[in-house]
Amino acid sequence: MRWLLWCSMCLVLNVTSAMAAPPEAAGFVRAKIDQLADLLMSDAPDRLEQVRRRMQELTDFSGFSERALGPTWGTLTRDEQLRFQRALQRLLESHYMGRPASIFDKQKVQVKSAARVGEQMAVSLAVQRDDVDIDVVVELQALRDGWQVRDVAIDGLSLLEDYRAQFQTYLKKKSLNELIAKLESRAQKNLAAKK
């Protein structure tokens, strides 16, 4: 569930290069939710590839991967860093590529507020799932012409911190190659289960 919401929030916040300055965060998030939902429901033959490109534009996978691995990142070779980054990216993509239209219903996502937290903006959302509202906070970093997702917290749990704890625990017992293989295997299983 948390992976699905993370992907949803990453997908809806595409960086728009035509803007001269970062737009107002809450309005930006609402507009991107609506645009992406429309894209996912369209008949465009390349809609999934368009969604993948938007996520790649929005998310700094290198920075996210580095923060997720914590101190381990600095001990890796550049090749190991790239392999881990690609595996983590494929895992995130696998959660929405199999069932893109079911990721969220734009009518069930309410943008509540935006507030500055240090150098970032935190946009609070309520996502209705079944009969429960899930509190989601998307942490954005301003770019020259848009926003970039740094983290997503679901019901108070930071996905970045959760990943970091899981990866550090895993790497105490197993190797980086085993972690990469596990991420890739999970991504393949996600895609196979949704076909």
Describe this structure in words.
This protein is of the alpha+beta class. It has one domain (2-193): Tgt2/MlaC (Nuclear Transport Factor 2, Chain: A, Roll), CATH 3.10.450.710. 52% of the residues lie in helices and 21% in strands. Strands 1-2-3-4-5 form a 5-stranded antiparallel beta sheet. The two termini are 18 Å apart.
Question: Which key terms come to mind for this protein?
Answer:
195 residues, alpha+beta, Nuclear Transport Factor 2, Chain: A, 5-stranded antiparallel β-sheet, 5 strands, 52% helix, 21% strand
Report a brief summary of the structure:
52% of the residues lie in helices and 21% in strands. With 195 residues, it is an alpha+beta fold.
Low-confidence stretches: 14-21
CATH architecture: Roll
CATH fold descriptor: Nuclear Transport Factor 2, Chain: A
Determine the number of helices (DSSP H or I, runs of at least 4 residues).
7
- State the end-to-end CA separation: 18 Å
Strand order of the largest sheet: 1-2-3-4-5
Main sheet overview: 5 strands, antiparallel
The fraction of residues in strands falls at: 15-25%
State Rg: 17 Å
Within CATH, the superfamily carries the name: Tgt2/MlaC
Q: Quick one: CATH class?
A: Alpha Beta
Structural class: alpha+beta
Number of strands: 5
Percent in helix: 40-55%
